[in-house]
Design brief:
Radius of gyration of chain B: 24 Å
Number of strands of chain A: 6
Strand content of chain B: 5-15%
CATH class of chain A: Alpha Beta
Structural class of chain A: alpha+beta
Helix content of chain B: 40-55%
Shape of chain A: globular
Oligomer: heterodimer
Largest sheet of chain B: 6 strands, mixed
Shape of chain B: globular
Structural class of chain B: alpha+beta
Low-confidence stretches of chain A: 147-157
Radius of gyration of chain A: 18 Å
CATH class of one domain in chain B: Alpha Beta
């Protein structure tokens, strides 16, 4: 019984949403909060992963201990010519980014979003721009196209 | 601030590109070993040339550090070498000097074969107009143009001397000149006085170039450091050296199109000379590049030819400004001049596009690079860049700036993670 008790308790110590939110707003004062509650919030902010990169508006939807979702919302992301869908997303149409491995528990709600999820989102955008010309993902993570030879791209020089 | 970051970032890309255009350390070492062996063969105890103190020295883009690999992988890299003799029998004309060096090469069965392998032996008997060419194996991927020449021992002495930039003057440049052989000169097989042979000054030119390229506080340099046969591979290049590589590659790509007769494309020596003159000593690659392109055309001179009374375009050889015009062919082949200006126009246009790419995405930079320098090499540069930054993150050295999300060396450290996703 006691072990069950502790397990349950451990599961509940996720960071309060307001702390997460205040940390994000401190780092991104321009972030726009769409709504917030005791355990949840939704906000939008801009990311430009490199000086050469475009600026992207992303939306973060957070519900403590339940989920965190990140979307690119201000444009329809293009698809590389030799690919049919976006890399590392839950859903191409909704442009919801997949930034870490849930099975490996790379992110827990005890971590600050500003120190993990947001930099990862910026990295996603960075590698997305590098991916666009040839459909090659240089950011690591699982192999997105197991059945395609990634070096089978157009050769022309 | 953003502009500074932009300059830094794009310079990093250009530097990567320069490295990909350059020969690798392995290639470099193989080439040095090869020409060192040629030098040894010529100066061996048993060599018929031993009394004339023969030496092999690199010249041209290999010496200047501005070599660019050819756009087709199957094409050879060109290595320019000088073979200089310090003495010669009084009776030798240019022809004898040339043939004696050829004969000695042919005594070695490998070099004999390599002379024959170049252009199916067309140049086996007499060599080219000025050179002997050794064709190394396809795997090695290069051939060597060996320029037979005469220069007294003063040259060796001068090369060991350490120049300071201030003391470089015309007289000293002149002392670095060598005399070369030329089958198309009237006195090729008659004149034994080297003073009447064609004068060339590759080492004077190199001295001038390295002087122009220098940005650091190191005040002295010796030419020997650049021609030393066993000098170490230079991984870090000076901005001017990189810009010259980028310019040459841009030219190669532009004139590989079927719309042009590639024979009349701008020649490297003109590009290198104008770029060096236009270089403002910027240490940042994009600034150096942009400013050079902006000013290059201003250094094309116009001079009146006293014989014809006509105005001619001049790109004087800095080691012989009065008498040698690198653009002397322009008046004979109009297309050469036209192409040069077409190339400059395209270059200016492309560079403006590149600099306007700020905030348009790395994909836009990729597109510009592909058009300017080729698709394959651009892909390599971008993959290096992506992988390098992934490695930095894995090592805990990649950060994100607050407020903008910009990745780099400032801000919160990015923890390791794996991108996942559904195959939906």
């Amino acid at each position: 019984m006691s072990s069950n008790f502790f397990k349950r308790k451990k599961k509940l110590i996720g960071m309060p949403a307001y702390i997460q939110l205040s940390k994000i707003r401190k780092a991104f004062p321009d972030a726009k909060v769409l709504n917030k509650g005791w355990n949840n919030f939704e906000l939008e902010l801009n990311l430009q992963p490199s000086p050469l990169s475009e600026i992207y508006r992303i939306k973060i939807v957070y519900k403590k201990n339940l989920f965190i979702k990140i979307y690119v919302i201000d444009k329809v992301l293009k698809i590389a010519n030799n690919r049919s869908k976006l890399p590392h997303v839950y859903n191409t149409k909704e442009q919801q980014l997949c930034l870490y491995s849930p099975s490996k528990k790379e992110w827990k709600s005890t971590q600050y979003i500003i120190n993990s999820i947001i930099p990862w989102a910026s990295e996603w955008l960075f590698y997305y721009e590098l991916w666009l010309p040839d459909g090659e993902w240089y950011g690591g993570g699982h192999n997105e196209y197991p059945n395609e030879k990634s070096n089978k791209t157009i050769k022309d020089e | 601030m953003i502009n500074k970051l932009y300059n830094k970032e794009i310079s990093e890309f250009l530097e990567e590109l320069g490295k990909e255009l350059d020969i690798t350390k392995t290639e470099y070492e193989a080439i040095v070993k090869s020409y060192d062996a040629v030098g040894d063969w010529l100066s061996k105890q048993t060599s018929s040339l031993i009394n004339y103190n023969p030496k092999i020295l690199p010249q041209g883009s290999f010496m200047l550090g501005t070599i660019v690999r050819p756009i087709c992988d199957e094409d050879d890299i060109d290595i320019d070498l000088v073979c200089k003799l310090e003495k010669k029998p009084i009776s030798w004309t240019q022809k004898e000097l040339k043939l004696k060096i050829g004969d000695r090469l042919k005594e070695n069965s490998d070099y004999n074969r390599m002379l024959f392998d170049y252009k199916d032996g067309d140049y086996y008997v007499e060599g080219g107009r000025r050179c002997w060419t050794l064709k190394y194996s396809d795997v090695a991927g290069y051939h060597m143009d060996i320029l037979p020449s005469f220069a007294d021992s003063n040259l060796t002495f001068l090369m060991e001397k350490r120049f300071s930039y201030e003391e470089l003057n015309k007289e000293e440049l002149n002392k670095l000149a060598i005399r070369i052989t030329d089958t198309e000169r009237d006195n090729y097989d008659t004149d034994t006085d080297v003073e009447n042979w064609h004068k060339s000054n590759p080492f004077g030119y190199a001295t001038w170039f390295l002087n122009k390229a220098q940005i650091s506080r190191t005040k002295f340099f010796s030419l020997n450091e650049s021609v030393d046969p066993v000098r170490a591979f230079q991984d870090e290049k000076l901005p001017l050296q990189r810009v010259v590589q980028l310019l040459k590659r841009h030219r190669d790509i532009m004139f590989s199109s079927e719309n042009y007769n590639s024979e009349n494309k701008p020649i490297s020596i003109i590009i290198t000379t104008l770029a060096s003159r236009a270089y403002d000593k910027s240490e940042n690659l994009i600034d150096a590049y942009t400013n050079i392109v902006k000013r290059m055309r201003d250094f094309i001179e116009e001079r009146i030819n006293p014989e014809t009374g006509k105005t001619e375009k001049w790109v004087p050889n800095p080691a012989n400004t009065k008498n040698e015009n690198f653009a002397d062919k322009w008046k004979e082949v109009e297309q050469k001049q036209d192409y040069f200006y077409l190339w400059l126009n395209k270059l200016e246009e492309d560079l403006t596009k590149l600099n306007d790419g700020q905030g348009k995405g790395l994909q836009s930079l990729n597109e510009n690079f592909s058009n300017m320098y080729g698709k394959e090499i651009t892909k390599k540069v971008f993959s290096n860049y992506g992988n390098k930054n992934t490695l930095l993150r894995e090592e805990g050295k990649r950060r994100m700036a607050e407020g903008t999300g910009m990745l780099g060396t400032v801000g919160v450290t990015i923890p390791s993670h794996n991108f996942e996703g559904n195959n939906e």
